[in-house]
Amino acid sequence: MTKTVTDVVCPFCGTLCDDLEVVVSDDGKQLLEVYNACAIGAEKFLHSQAEDRLTRPRLQQEDGSWKDVTYDEAIEYTAQMLASSTKPLMYGWSSTNCEAQGVGSEIGEITGAVMDNTATVCHGTSLIAVQDIGIPHCTLGEVKNRADRVVFWGCNPAHAHPRHMSRYSIFPRGFFTGKGHKGRKVIVIDPRKTDTANVADVHLQIEQGRDYELLDALRVAFKGLPLPDVVAGIPKEQIYEAAEVLKSGRFVIIFFGMGVTQSLGKNHNIDEAIAVTRDLNEYTKAAIMPMRGHYNVTGSGAVWGWQFGFPFAVDLSRGFARYNPGETTSNDLLRRGEVDSVFVLGSDPGAHFPFSSVKKISELPSVCIDPHQTPTTAVCKLHVPVAFVGVEIGGCAYRMDNVPIETRKVVEAPEGMMTDEEFLEKVLVRIKEIKGE
Amino acid sequence: MAEYIIKNGFVFDPVLGINGDKTDVAIKDGKFVETTQLANPKTIDATGMTVMAGAVDIHAHVAGPKVNTGRNFRPEDKLFNCTPRRGVERMQGGFSVPTTFKTGYDYARMGYTTVMEAAMPPLYARHTHEEIRDTPIIDQAAFPVFGNNWFVLEYLKNNEIENTASYIAWLLRATKGYAVKVVNPGGTEAWGWGLNCENIHDPVPFFDITPAQIVKGLIEANEYLGLPHSMHVHANNLGNPGNYTTTLDTFKLSEGIKPRGGWGRDQVMHHTHVQFHSYGGDNWGNFESKSPEIMDYVNSHDNITIDIGQVTLDETTTMTADGPFEHHLTELNHLKWANTDVELETGSGVVPYVYSPTIKVCAIQWAIGLELGLLAKDPMRVFITTDHPNAGPFIRYPRVIKWLMSQQSREEMLNGFKHSEKVIDATHLMGIDRELSLYEIAQMTRAGTAKALGLGHMYGSLKPGLEADVAVYDFNPEQEHAPDDIEKAFGNARHLFKTGMQIINEGEIVSNGNKRTLWVNARVNENPQVMRDVKEKFLRYYTVTQNNYEVAGHHYVPNPYVIEVDATQ
Ligand code: SF4
Ligand SMILES: [Zn+2]
């Protein structure tokens, strides 16, 4: 006999689909099948069932080999490392729940850590732009129910957020959008001919790195002012036409991704994209949304927001919270050699950081908490495998539009495995003892 | 639990009619008791000091998505004010949008023990509760917003009060909410299309209903259920010259309706931050105070309460579910603008704002708030707020109290403004010599707010049986004092107890308390139609499933205090 769990939340990408169905064995120990998820989402669930999964912490030896240790030993090791550091980097926090993020914050407070999340290499530039100019935003349901103009700028949901288009942005029929796809005009702005571009009504194949110019040109075109013949590789007629498509919509939504946040111009691109959205609100209704990657990177920015007042790159090392991207961001700290230990949870900097940073991590005392074996666990001194959040333990996660959803536990973790939150709680208690609090 | 006796202070308790008499206050098992019931109490010497029940804030924006947007998009709000972990205190930071920890501690330092979060978008209820959970010491509750909710618009279009009431009960339970909040009724839904509803008869696009129908229907549904608090409204047309007529029109929607439920409140409408709604003139040039017209109405109608929304003349962060207003504001001041429209439910905007004493309009706004307080005939129905952080941060309450208590401090301000003469001309404050007493301040910050919230059985007084929430201020009402002494005393409680736990001792925070989240569980008769409608809306229009919508207790509301309402009769 099997059981089907409904309304399961997918802990993979910022789309945070919450309509999955998961079939589990009667004893609740085995996960058998996953329905409604996209391929990458299903893979995440099924991966938890891997036969060769690590279930106990292990410590890297001098010769590079690994030795199994108990959770108690791992807690002691982690607590000692953090307590004896003057400025540890506590990085990641994007693939875990808000409960764990909250406990992590308090550890950071006591040990004077720098708290940083994956936004640092992703949408941190968007967060900076929002601090410059604000953001007209909305929930994904507003897009579903109202949007008749949909722009994807520098993002490719067909691959990175596979169910985004069917659940929210292109295909669904909503309250004022009964015609679904037919009632929407879709514009894709991307130098590549992506699978998302293939479903678009208009594809502006922009020259790489020219996003700022094209955004600026759109603002000029809204006002009907003259443009050069070609901007960013796009003929001006196409730009005027795109501007007209946007202005004539009832509700415009712009989604943007790493193609604009991490290309030439960085946060200035996003400033300008938000300015485009602001301008459009003079003519119609418009909103803009970052396509956040990890399923709960948004949540870590939210938790730090209410606890410290800053969404990433939070430096607690002086005893109070400071924020100065470029100085207090992970890669800058690592490259300048300003941190004396590294703690990673809920991310894989080994795969996403520049080599120079990864090398620094490998040279420092380091702990990585991750259910998987990753490039990061390979370079850290201690690897602590934990239960999968959203599969083996529930907890709160924030969707890309900041909507908080409670993820579900669908199966039991292997016997004796700890969760992120449990592990951090124990480390916190131990650090308080060491520090005499 | 420890017993305490607070001895020899000057006690102000409007519920018990104590007006500065020297009375001892006894605490046992978290409640106030008769002094004779104490066996071996610790003594707190309050000689020469003022003693009041813990204060109750009826309206502030302290937790939830728009507050956090304010924090995260304003790093500049934390310049030079971040403080370290110390003793029991966590790290803190922020001026107009403080972190949750700072929020709890700062309220405690002012002697506040209960605070209402005034606008919770239902879809973001989890977020609101996570922040409330991380706010130490104070009891809190959150008001979900209903005034632009599609269920409400559709039911009230046909005047279906019972269905509206069933839906309210369902949503309060799903979101762990406390009261029915209405913000710019209909206008925020219109803002989904970039439009607005500018007066109470301006129809909502596509929904075929007016703001007047929404407000009246929600008052009736609220009284059908007999909820602890009344319908709590921020009317249409906020912030515009000449808007006082819209405010009066909104007030009138309450006429002829009586409170139900037996919670001890007399009002069926609480109108919030009325300062923003008391404007005459028809442009910024002839902008003027209409507080006398507003207060004439309030003074002569017992079934209304208001809070003032006092402008404090600070740099602050405005935030409201009134989406179109924030867009209007960013067009006026050209500062950064955040907006979030929430599917089927509501919207919101956030814009920084500098209330400068050198700007005539700001100074007039400052005067209007104080006029409302000073023209109040019944301080049990007119409350002190700054609509935190909209008109100013809540940490300015002690300053607002000073202005209300001291004509001298007001006149120094009026005479000091850059456009002093014009401000005096456009307002009535200069002629008002009333100085509120400590007794009246206790009405406006404790007894009155607790009563209006339907919480007079828990808060607002030192009566035996109530929660032992009490503040001791270093202020001797029998001695000569300068106006600034008032501000200093009310900003630095000497002692504070929350449900019988000592939170502040000799001015030091010594405990994080045992904060609770209040919510209302209203039981109604089964209503299959409403449950069908709910199911259908989740299937077709929401982007979360119905089963993923309800806020579970454990993590979000770890220490609940549930107020049961039986509306099955
Ligand atoms: S789109 Fe993202 S959240 Fe949805 S199923 Fe796929 S990976 Fe999971
Ligand atoms: Zn308000």
UniProtKB/TrEMBL annotation, chain A:
Keywords: Oxidoreductase. SUPFAM superfamilies: Formate dehydrogenase/DMSO reductase, domains 1-3. CDD domains: MopB_FmdB-FwdB. Signal peptide: none annotated. Residues 53-349 form the Molybdopterin oxidoreductase domain. It comes from the Archaea. It holds the Pfam family Molybdopterin. The keyword Oxidoreductase applies. The keyword Oxidoreductase applies. NCBIfam families: one_C_dehyd_B. This is Formylmethanofuran dehydrogenase subunit B. The lineage of its organism: Archaea, Methanobacteriati, Methanobacteriota, Stenosarchaea group, Methanomicrobia.
Automatic annotation (TrEMBL), chain B:
Gene3D superfamilies: Metal-dependent hydrolases, Urease, subunit C, domain 1. This is Formylmethanofuran dehydrogenase subunit A. NCBIfam families: one_C_dehyd_A (TIGR03121). Residues 42-485 form the Amidohydrolase domain. InterPro entries: Amidohydro_3 (IPR013108), Formylmethanofuran_DH_asu (IPR012027), Metal-dep_hydrolase_composite (IPR011059), Metal_Hydrolase (IPR032466), Metallo-dep_Hydrolases_sf (IPR050378). It comes from Methanoculleus frigidifontis. It comes from the Archaea.
